[in-house]
Amino acid sequence: MGLPEVRSFSDATPEELRQRIAELTEAVTARDTFIAVAAHELRNPMTPMMGQVDLLLAGVKAGKYTPEQIEQRLGRIRHIMDHYVKRATVLLNVSRINSGQNRLNPAPFDLIDLVREIVETFADAARHAGTSVGITAPAHLPGTWDRLAMEQIIDNLISNAIKYGARRPVEVHVEPIGNAARISVRDNGCGISAEDRGRIFRRFERAVGVNKTHSGFGVGLWVVGQLVAAMEGTITVSDAPGGGTVFSVTVPLHTRRNPS
């Protein structure tokens, strides 16, 4: 079958021109959105990776690491790099984030193991930022989720909490809620106004948009919102008792696989 005939712009009606302009505008917006999302998602894991490299270099120069400790540090860096490559691979599929038709690949795993693993990757970055990340969770919480999607959600929330937490401790709380799991990440920063809460999950929006101290594309929470929605979950933001902000993600214990 041959290609359909394409009329030239000179022959198009005003309505056809408006439609074509709208299509081109949407395509450019999709491209720009993907570039911003990719930049954010590929930059985020670099923070703990660089922290590990800096500590290893400092330790080697000071002569305080044994060969076994160097091997352990390199193994941790390799582990972070493996996750980085996985994330980069996923980002090649633009539609996963930008089309609203996120393709999930759920598989059984223990959520607590994943949370502890992510917190461990942020340990050195948190120390560099003058803070710490603590966990309150049961010993195990098995379920069926898209592992990479859950990793991106938790990674973004912890990264933001460290970034905006005013050098105060970050707390991660995980618990089962009926047939769902809830992950809450609390910082002890300046909080988020009610007005900002209405827009921080949009693309290119940031609660500290007028504060030049923190850079970013404003897509992290949008990514989180898209992934949570794809897993038929919810995300809320609220004031923490005594100051700060709590982001809570609640997802079913068993994510349904997308239809083919």
Structural class of the helix and strand makeup?
A: alpha+beta
CATH top level label of the largest domain = Alpha Beta
Q: Strand content of the residues, in percent?
A: 15-25%
Strand order of the largest sheet: 2-4-5-7-6
Oligomer: single chain
pLDDT < 50 stretches: 1-6, 205-218
What would you say this structure looks like, in words?
The protein is α+β, with helices and mostly antiparallel strands and 260 residues long. Helices cover 49% and strands 16% of the residues. It has eight helices and seven strands; from the N terminus they run H-H-H-H-E-H-E-E-H-E-E-H-H-E-E. It has a five-stranded mixed sheet with strand order 2-4-5-7-6, with helices on one face. A two-stranded antiparallel ribbon has the order 1-3. Strand 4 (170-177) and strand 5 (180-186) form a beta hairpin. Helix 2 crosses helix 5 (111-128) and helix 6 (147-164) packs antiparallel against helix 8 (220-230). The longest helix has 30 residues, at 14-43. It is globular, with a radius of gyration of 21 Å. The chain starts with 13 loop residues before the first helix and ends in an 8-residue tail after the last strand.
